[in-house]
Each structure stands twice: as C-alpha cells, then as structure tokens.
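[step 3/7] inverse_fold.run input=structure_tokens len=198
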C-alpha cells in the first residue's frame, strides 16, 4: 500500500517540482517540464539517485530502477548545487540526491559534473508528536523527522494537483516524502514535506 501512495506522490510531480525546489510548482509548469525531464532521463551519460557511499575519491549512487553506479572523482569534476551554484565534493552527503553527468573510459566511470540535491526520505507515518513525525520507510527503517516553522507542507490531492498543506493534516497512516538533511543525531530535519492521505 505504501508503494502505491508514494508512487502517487511521485506521479503528481512532487519529487521533481517540490522536493527539488521546495516550492509549489504550478501544474502547467510541471507539464511543460516533462519532455525535458524525459530527455534527461534517457541520456546515456546522465545518472540520478541517492548517495549510498562517499569517499574523497568516489561516490556510489543508487537508482531505484537502474541499480547502483560508482563514479570516480577527477581534477576536472565540477560540483554544483541549487541553481548551479558552485559547490565542493566535501558537501556531498549520504542520502543526498545526485544527478551525475559522466563518461566511461578504460573500463571505469568518471564523474564530469555532479549536481547535489537535498536528501530525501519516504515512508508511512507511524506517529506525530509535537514537531516530530516518525515514519517507517519501505525498507522497514524507522526515521524521525523534525519540522519547524520554516517547513513547507504540500498536500497531494490528485494527479498533478497539489495545494498548501499543514502539519495538522498529517497523521498515522499518511504516506509522505520529505526533503531536508540529517542532523548529528541522525534525525531528519525536514524543509519540505509532500504527503497524500488516503
């Protein structure tokens, strides 16, 4: 069931339009961006997913459909974040989302350009206690999301339809995807929460 809920959220464009930018993108803008997204996804030298391992010289990225790839860093590797702001390799963190443009030579895969996105986590809500939302991920891992007055909430109401949401609308059983970052205690500080109630 959670897979269907999260698939519905993804279908509604929340991952691309909301988690990447933290904004409520208009449905028309989402539709207009779809062809470009399709082209990028089909590009043979582009790979996107979540970071599962990172060292000073290489990063491993996992894609739900395409599996995992490990990319080697070179002196020519360019790292950016946000709207193409210059960043450094050291800013790449576990669970953050990367889009990597790469090249293969001599049997190895080299990262040419790395775009750092925010870390994201998805799951089904187990409880809401004050500013802490506890979820269970599809892999069975329990994660505590902390929210604050700056957290943005997006309610998915249908295909390509979303509206401003609120913490009070989230309860046990709600499927959600959140973007943000992990703190030192490995709690997840959520900057954006996209959810869909049954």
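[step 3/7] decode complete -> sequence:
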């Amino acid at each position: 069931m959670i897979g269907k809920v999260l698939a519905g959220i993804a279908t509604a464009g929340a991952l691309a339009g909301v988690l990447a930018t933290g904004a409520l993108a208009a449905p028309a803008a989402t539709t207009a961006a779809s062809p470009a997204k399709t082209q990028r996804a089909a590009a043979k030298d582009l790979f996107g997913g979540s970071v599962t391992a990172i060292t000073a010289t290489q990063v491993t990225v996992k894609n739900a459909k395409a599996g995992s790839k490990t990319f080697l860093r070179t002196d020519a590797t360019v790292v950016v974040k946000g709207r193409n702001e210059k960043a450094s390799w050291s800013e790449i963190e576990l669970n953050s989302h990367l889009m990597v443009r790469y090249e293969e030579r001599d049997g190895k895969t080299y990262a040419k350009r790395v775009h750092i996105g925010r870390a994201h986590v998805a799951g089904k809500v187990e409880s809401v206690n004050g500013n802490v939302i506890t979820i269970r991920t599809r892999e069975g891992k329990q994660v505590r999301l902390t929210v604050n007055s700056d957290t943005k909430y997006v309610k998915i109401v249908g295909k390509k339809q979303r509206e401003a949401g609120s913490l009070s609308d989230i309860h046990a059983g709600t499927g959600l995807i959140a973007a943000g970052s992990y703190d030192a205690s490995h709690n997840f500080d959520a900057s954006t929460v996209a959810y869909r109630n049954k």
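[step 4/7] annotate
The radius of gyration is 17 Å.
Confidence is low (pLDDT under 50) at residues 1-42.
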